[in-house]
Hints:
Layout: H1 11-17, E1 36-40, E2 43-46, E3 51-54, H2 57-60, H3 69-81, H4 93-105, E4 110-116, H5 119-136, E5 144-148, H6 157-161, E6 181-183, H7 189-202, E7 206-211, E8 215-216, E9 222-223, H8 226-238, E10 242-246, H9 260-264, E11 270-273, E12 285-290, H10 291-295, H11 316-331, H12 334-349, E13 358-364, E14 367-372, H13 377-389, E15 392-393, E16 400-403, H14 411-426
The chain binds pyridoxal-5'-phosphate (PLP).
Amino acid sequence: MTQSSTYTQPEWLSEGWEHIWAPYTQMQTANFPLPVIDTKNTHITLEDGRTLIDGIASWWSSCHGYKHPHIMAEMHRQIDDFPHVMFAGLAHEPAYKLATRLTKIAPDGLSRVFFSDSGSVSVEVAMKMAVQYWINRKETRRHKFICFRNGYHGDTMGGMSLADKEVSMHRIFQHFTPKQYVLDIPNDEYSFAEFEEIIAGIAHTAAGLVMEPLVQGAGGMKFHSSDTVAEIFRICKKYDILFIADEVATGFGRTGTMFACEEAGITPDIMCLGKALTGGTTTLAATLATDEIFSNFLSDEMTAAFMHGPTFMANPLACAAANASLDLFEKEPRLEQVLSIESQLRDELRPCRTIERVKNIRVKGAIGVVQLNDATWEEMFSLRNKCIESGVWLRPFGDVVYLTPSFTIAPQDLSHLTGTIVDLIKKL
Ligand SMILES: Cc1ncc(COP(=O)(O)O)c(C=O)c1O
């Protein structure tokens, strides 16, 4: 799909580009981003008239497709009522309802919800909660975190400190962020024994262990089993370490169950949610905690209270969108759609197995990954551009080409995405 030769860039783009600082972008060499004028279900319409099939649902968030009429209607209703009011000392139905609903669908025992405004902040909140939980219990040495190689937990200071310092884009900040224990995810009897030995030695200084259950996303799209998650959880409990599940990416059906922890059969002490919480319409995040965590903040002393409160915490418009998104999970067959996407991805990515450049193919729920041997940045950038020429919106990075489409994607659109990946990788 090529751009018409008579097309001229809109003025706002060239003018604004002089003032925009784009994400993850070398601004000296970057081309203009693609100007978007509309989105609908899994399609992105560009200013020049082209339409792209979105294979990554705006970074895993748009789980019901863009502009689902139910979410749009509920957001319009809330905007007319009131789009925002502060949350300290004031209450509103969208947030209180949402908190109640989230605790009903979250793993059993997560009974408190702290709202914030992005996935990264939900992780910061979780880290503060864990550290203060121990302070309130008069255990002041527990302020470090255990986390994993290939992990990613956001771009803020605490989140960056949990990232893999070797492979992560945050490695240049390694002397600036707090030092954590970054370990390999164990995967067999021997590595589990070694893992447990390390944990036994550091438990007295650990506030918590933070992990992306089942799928590590932006750190390399690595998968591990639900048994692995369950065993790591068991070891955490044995050594009295808080288990923090970062489900910002995996939450809301992406891996096949509503939450990845569900497949592992565990209730984390703290769980972070974001991305698909509002069906990908607007920014909202939540940090859920158990009664055990919450009760340790109850005291006659103000100093034991949790001192955190973003300005736009529990934004009513975002909460209305999130409630509407939960309605859709109740009314429409989202998890069944995830299963059928999973089986289509398995079938249609299989031809990659015979391509020499392909190292590994993996599929979990509505996530498909093709990992290449020795991919260069230049190759990945060129792949991105070729995808656009084929009418497809994907963001290959590192050595992976991945798909995380909306759950409502039409099978023929998904086939176009997988077909494009197979064709383009063959030509590498
Ligand atoms: C597992 C995980 N945690 C945290 C974040 C940060 O979320 P946000 O980009 O909304 O700050 C992300 C974002 O990709 C993520 O994948």
